[in-house]
Amino acid sequence: MEKNKQQLTRTMTSRHITMMALGGAIGAGLFKGSSAAIDMAGPSVLIAYLIGGIILLFVMQGLAEMAVRNKDARTFRDLVQSVLGKYPAYFLDWIYWKMWVLNIAAESVVAAIFIQYWLPEYPIWILALSVSVLVTAINLLSVKIFAETEYWLALIKITVIIVFIIAGLILLLATFGNHTAVGFSNLTEHGGFFPNGSMGLIAAMLVVIYSYGGTEIIGITLAETKNPEKVVPKAVRSTLVRIVTFYLLPFFIIVSLIPWNEVNGVPESPFVMVFKMIGIPGADHIMNAVVILAIISSMNSGLYGSSRVLYTQAVDGRVPKIFAHLSKRKVPVYAILMCTLAMYLGVILSLYVGSKTFDFLMGSLGYTVLFIWLIIAIAHLKSRKKQAEHTSAYEVKWFPYTTWIAIMALSAILIGIIFTTSIIVTSITLGIYLFITFTYVWKGRYQAN
Prior knowledge:
Structural class: mainly alpha
Largest sheet: none
CATH topology: Amino acid/polyamine transporter I
Number of helices: 17
CATH superfamily: Amino acid/polyamine transporter I
Distance between the termini: 34 Å
Number of domains: 1
Shape: globular
């Protein structure tokens, strides 16, 4: 009886996890990180997001196939450990947890930055604290209520992005009233399509990978998804098309409408800047509200993902059992509260660093998403050999070529990013990875004794 009480319930459907993946990926990386990416690469940021989208497609296909082959899997570790062994699974679990807790900290600050658009007299830390409390409350409700909240938050931002795309295309192509069609001259003027050369494109890939990161949260929902062997492949297919569409088209409109060198250094999001150009009274305020909802949606997904990683670690005895405790609503309450500490640490950090907190954390997060995708791709490559005798309802076409392309592309991006990223960010990230490795070695020796 006690065992049943400590099990997560399968209440999430295909529409829930599809929207959750979108909620995780369409957040601060799109609305705030877009400024940094455009500043680095100029109009060629479009190529960066296209490359990132193709890599994401290949990685997610592999994840879906492994999920279908392992029907009892609850999270990434279950998919990876049987293929690559204990250390890669342990490392993946903890860097994924680290990614989300840092991400929700960063996004609480970004949400506060956009709220300051309306309330400039309030310091960032107070606004970040308010957002953090709200997200904590949503996650402490039942999984079904959380999933429904995330579904509608994601639906709102997707709807507005579609409106943004339509309005942007009208501004680009149509002449009406006092408005003259902008056209596409901004794509080649102001230094050309590659104003900062190939190094600018490579540097932007860190932001791109960070922006797309979060889609792989589908791998965390396995224990709470009905019929995961059918739902996961369907969610992967629909999510990828939407993410590439919702990144590439908006970026195309932004760099076409606004000179790339005027995007960064402005307090509001490039999306708000475009809505101002539309000329509809209050359009910028509507867009700012949607940006805030989008970021809260992403934080929602992040807190869910990180708490479930901690929960499964506790169930397996890798961390204190208290984090495996489920409330009457079947949510891991202590795991959620532990992960929310990251948001409040972000609030404290913003007291000293302010709006630069996001830029500081984003670099480390980009590295982490790269390693997560690499481990998933390598695991998929080896999983076919381990399970060659088993047939699967879903198999990746053109295997192993797509997986090898993903591995080689991610490795090349990693090398490029090392040479274009701040040595401080790289050193801190390396320190975190070494600490995770140390805890694995220490725990192994402790258990052996």
